[in-house]
Amino acid sequence: MRLRTSLVLVAVIANIAQLASAAEPPMRAIVTYKTLPPGIASELNLMRVGDAVVSQGHVLPTINSVALTAPRVLLEVLAQDPRVLAIRPQRKLKLNLYGSVEQINARGVELAETVGPAACAKERPGVTGAGVTVAVIDSGVHAAHVGLVGRVLTGLNFEGSLPQRESGVFTAEESDAYAEATGPSALQDEVGHGTHCAGTIGGDGTGAAGLDLAGVAPGVEMISMKIASGANGVAADAGFEANAVRAIDYLTRHRDALNARIASNSWGLLEEEEQAPLLGPTDFDPVQAAIRAAVAEGIVMVFAAGNDGGGPGVDTVRTFPNSMDEVITVGSACKASFGSCPGGEMNDFSSRGAAVDVSAPGDQILSTQAPNSILAPLGQTLEGDYFGDTPQDEAQNRANYMRLSGTSMATPHVAGVVALLLEANPDLSPAQVREILTSTATDMVIEGHAELVSGHDKASGFGLVNVRKALAMAVGAPVADICPGTAAPAPTPTPTPTPAPAPTPVVAPVPVSAAAAATDSGRFGGGSLNPMLLMLLATALAGRRKPRH
Ligand SMILES: [Ca+2]
Ligand SMILES: [Ca+2]
């Protein structure tokens, strides 16, 4: 009897093995457990169906999951495991770069438009992001760039093109050790996308002549978390979702050690890669779960809205992660001047949807160039390009900087602004940061415009991020009259598209605690104010000019 059972079992396994050998190439999936079983890495390493094995994998503790590559037959066996909650095929990543050819003059990192239309707004606001660390989850950062050197302190690699252990599932500790050991590859950038974003967040402008190309928060420190490389496609096929989930999982678990409070995410998931889950609730999304865990740890997640365009009635911000309430979703605005579209409008490519929170310039942004990167030729040869007033300036600036467009380029502006806010008030929670940014944004509205209506709209969200007003609100200062000589915009209280509290009208001097009371109160108090910072802000608010260079 016993022998008979064994023979049947052998026959079944032989059949499965036959299926496995005849089957398509291994699948990438994320297997989520109800509770992460102890020793799951070794258990999966021992799993065999015929000659089918898990070829590689990583344990992801924050979402009780294992990202793995395995033949489908193994995933089907795992789907029978009562401990498993869900199995989802991995989606592909995309970088939200827009390959526009309609390019005319750009003037660098467009701090001016980020902070408002007035001349005084071109002045830097008196905080630099000092003491704040931003994670750049992207294609790596060329850390040796003259405008970034010394400030991208840590590289962590989550990109899979480097040789890995032949086979096997990494425990979280092994996975972390691998990300750290191969971290130097994250301090290089074969694509050029992450380097450009890093310059917008916190480049110091070194290596530019005649133009101010410093980033929004030139005192910030950065961590490069590499999830895409030149080994894959540049824009629409940049790797797999496990790379991003691993990065976010690592960031969440090491938040304190990394001192990281902000992640800048100029990537998304390819919607066409959406595949039915192999098992489990259809509303379970590993990327969403990882982001929620990060936000719960106090990490502000800033995301590009995407470059899928759209218009009235056509929503293109539909998918995770950029549509999540918990993330700050950024659209790409035209610049006041030297852009490819009229100032005050949104780029046509910027994705539309109720989830868009705020906008920042993303059109022909001049920022740090990774030498010999895939994108460098594009960034150098845009039509009607502008790199400086004199041939000497232009030659120097071309060596170190380049121009790119996309919500990828708008997003790091906002990440930089968040760094300024967290220097001003380190106690702000992600929900409070989002409340401050949305309620102080400069409404984008054009009479008769089908899209840019008063208050929140699906193109611009609550409008252009306004650094000065946001900073004032962050420290509890009055937000009115912060830019002398300009009329404050009319108050435009509007309903929000999300369960978030209604925005505070921007002109009234609103004590920040009023907004705090509506979110999670208690962490917003004036007790955390840094007197030096208040003085800096008072100076800025009084309209005193800092020399630019
Ligand atoms: Ca959002
Ligand atoms: Ca509007």
Would you spell out the secondary-structure blueprint of this structure?
Elements: H1 2-22, E1 27-33, H2 40-46, E2 56-60, E3 65-70, H3 72-78, E4 84-89, E5 93-95, H4 111-115, E6 133-138, E7 152-157, E8 168-170, H5 172-181, H6 193-202, E9 221-226, H7 241-253, H8 255-258, E10 260-265, E11 267-269, H9 286-296, E12 300-304, E13 328-333, E14 358-361, E15 365-368, H10 376-380, H11 391-400, E16 401-404, H12 407-424, H13 430-440, H14 467-474, H15 512-518, H16 531-541
Parallel strand pairs: 2-8, 6-9, 6-10, 7-9, 10-12, 12-13, 13-14
Antiparallel strand pairs: 1-3, 1-4, 2-3, 5-11, 15-16
Helix pairs in contact: 6-12, 7-9, 12-14, 13-14
This protein binds calcium ion (2 copies).
In this entry the ligands are:
calcium ion
Distance between the termini: 87 Å
Uncertain spans, ≥5 residues at pLDDT below 50? 1-18, 100-121, 481-549
Count helical runs: 16
Oligomeric status: single chain
Alpha carbon gyration radius: 24 Å
- Secondary-structure class: alpha/beta
Largest sheet: 7 strands, parallel
Strand fraction: 5-15%
3D shape: globular
What is the total tally of β strands? 16
Overall pLDDT level: 79
Fraction of helical residues: 25-40%
Biggest sheet: strand arrangement: 7-9-6-10-12-13-14
Note down, in words, how this protein is organized.
The chain has 549 residues and is α/β, with parallel strands linked by helices. Helices cover 29% and strands 15% of the residues. Strand 2 (56-60) and strand 3 form a beta hairpin. The chain is globular and about 70 Å long. The chain starts with a helix and ends in an 8-residue tail after the last helix. The model is unreliable at 1-18, 100-121 and 481-549 (pLDDT under 50). It binds calcium ion (2 copies). One calcium ion binds at residues 443-445, 452-455, 457, 460, 463. The site of one calcium ion (CA) has 10 residues, from loops.
